[in-house]
Amino acid sequence: MVSRFARFLAALAGVLCLLPNGAHAQACGELPPAAGGLPRLAILPVTVRPVQRTLTPVPATDGLIHIAFAAQVTNPAPETTTVVSIVAVDPLNGFQPSGANKVLDVNDADITGKVRLFSPPAGGRTDVSDIPAGASGMTFFDVTYAKADNVPRLLSMRITVQPQGADAPLSADSDPVPVDCEPPVVLSPPLTGDRWWNGNGCCEVVGPHRGATLPVNGDIKPPEQFAIDWVQLNEKNECCTGLVTNLKSWPFFRVPILAAAAGTVVAAVNNEPEQVPGPPKGITADNAPGNHIIEDIGNGRYILYAHLHTGSIPPSITVGSVLSPGQKIGELGNTGSSTAPHLHFQVMDRPSALNSVGLPFVFDRQIVQGHVAGAMGSADEAYEGGRPVDFVKDGTGWQYGKMPAEGQVFAFPAN
What we know:
Elements: H1 4-18, H2 22-28, E1 47-50, E2 58-59, E3 65-74, E4 81-90, E5 96-97, E6 100-101, E7 115-117, E8 127-128, E9 130-131, E10 136-145, E11 154-163, E12 170-173, E13 177-178, E14 185-187, E15 193-198, E16 214-216, E17 219-221, E18 228-232, E19 256-258, E20 263-269, E21 291-298, E22 301-308, E23 322-323, E24 328-331, E25 343-348, E26 358-359, E27 361-363, E28 366-372, H3 376-384, E29 391-392, E30 397-399, E31 408-412
Parallel strand pairs: 14-27
Antiparallel strand pairs: 1-3, 2-3, 3-10, 4-5, 4-9, 4-11, 6-10, 7-8, 7-10, 11-12, 11-13, 15-18, 15-31, 16-17, 18-25, 19-24, 20-21, 20-23, 21-22, 22-25, 25-26, 28-29, 28-30, 28-31
């Protein structure tokens, strides 16, 4: 057994590792030059605009540091333009390529540099390179680094396109976006026990959370880009002991949900009915989180605990209540926009489940038990259909100060 003091020291070391060090630390302590990182002027028939003002690198349990974000791509030209590539570059290093960018769809198809059109043609592909005249859509990034020293202060995108009728491709570098020097918030896991599967998290796969860029209040918001849906595998690597439509068949239904940090409750809903597992009914923007708590944890960060069991939030917890880490705040349920029992967990920059920007976070400690193999889409379909998933025991061991990587399975020992 690992002592609590040993875990504390390891966790502290993990947190310190999140802070910039070496050359990157020195760079983060300085502002870029007033004219630093400005690209040369270039007219390009495609625009690429990140949907957030700053980017935050986060170390994950896969051993990499991730800068994950989305950008809106628009073709204002009067004819179709082909996107040849979109590459992350460092404006303060001569616009040289920075990190390794690779993203997949839920079927494991490579969609790096592709554009997910807002209005794709009927029967056409979801992620494309050819952008019709006047069309717009989203492209996704997961720029990764092996070392914190390699993370840049600014990040731009080199866009290369092939306009119709042009003799050669055209390229331009986008205006830079600041890379945040402040490390992600450190939280405690909101669950205990083992075999908890991060079935829909960040970062390489653009699943329902990463892909949820929403038109909210006149802008595009990515509230769920670092969100996790937590579900549990039984000993047969399945979801259930009986019919999937029976909530009692799900062994982890109604397990305790714990506060992940100290903070103040700013929203609490406790009376939404349970959904029958399967496509949810009667969903609106207001009731999508189902029964939920939003907790203000300070410094412009809020935690959403969503889809809680009906009536499970204790009567003592109301708006204004102060929560302590590890305090029981409810039970895992299947309310709101939920196809099966799970805990939806996200950190965001506003006290709104949808009108916000999702922020990265790390857990102070966790045990990697392996990962679920195969494409996200087929694994999710098998699991919610009551069939076993392919659980591979690899990469096992304690991880401190890291964000849980999508697809991995974890144990969260009780304090």
